[in-house]
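Late entry, written up from scratch paper. The run itself happened at the end of the previous shift, but nothing got recorded in the book at the time, so transcribing now.
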Amino acid sequence: MLTERFRPKTAAELVGNQEEIAKLRDNIKNGKHSFVVGPPGVGKTTAVHVLGRELGFGVVEYNMSDTRNKDFLSKVLRMSQAETFVSILFLFEEVDGLQNQEDAGGWSVLVQIVKNSRHPVVLTANDFYKIGSEYRDALKHFCEVLKFSSPGLGDVMKRIAQIEKVTGLKADITKISGDVRKSIVIAFYGGESYESLDDFDVVKEFFTQVKTGNLSKDHLVWLMDNGTEFYKGRNLYRFYRLLAVASRSGRMNVLECMERGYGDVKAPRYLRRMKVFRGKEE
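Output as recorded:
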């Protein structure tokens, strides 16, 4: 997939937010904690991994939108206080997702982690104000808040142009936005992984019949982008959770737990757009 193939490998390749990235680098280097806030697709996670690698840190990552209760975080707390033979950086992704967890005690443990960790800690969140004020103020006390914003369209276009040059693919620049990841997916109509119309039948087969035998990891981004067309409410939440499991494990059959989708459209929008693009819309 293009988003993975062209994921930045060095700090020089990161798009936008250069001042905040420089502060993040200094914090990691000096063992200080950071709270990186910003909308999806602006490079928060990528920046942490790139800087950690360049500074010689092993990144230990946890996603707080998954089930992360007090007992689990208590184990992480003990890990964060332990001495290690290598430099370690703890990354807690989507901490605003903790608001959905039944065990509210997880928040107090997370505060203890950033207060007592021997190692640099980075928290990320899409919406800083989804966090309760009590815990938000406590985290601000121990972390420097770094606000990542959507990069300028000029910077995104430079990245798109680099991909065009390397791959020979032609992008639709009218689809470019401040979301770098989404821009790559849409501008190239999903990239080389989606050039075959066979993918149309594979993904449509899942949404209408819940058949997973032909699905692969290459289809995950299409499933994710079109889930809202077929699922609502709790079913949509469950669908995204199962997608995360499928992504980590590579086992597409976990999606068989879903019921057949009941969307109002005949096919996912990106797939339908590809058929229009090729003059084969039904």
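Strands lie at 33-37, 58-63, 88-93, 121-125, 143-147.
(Scratch paper discarded after transcription.)
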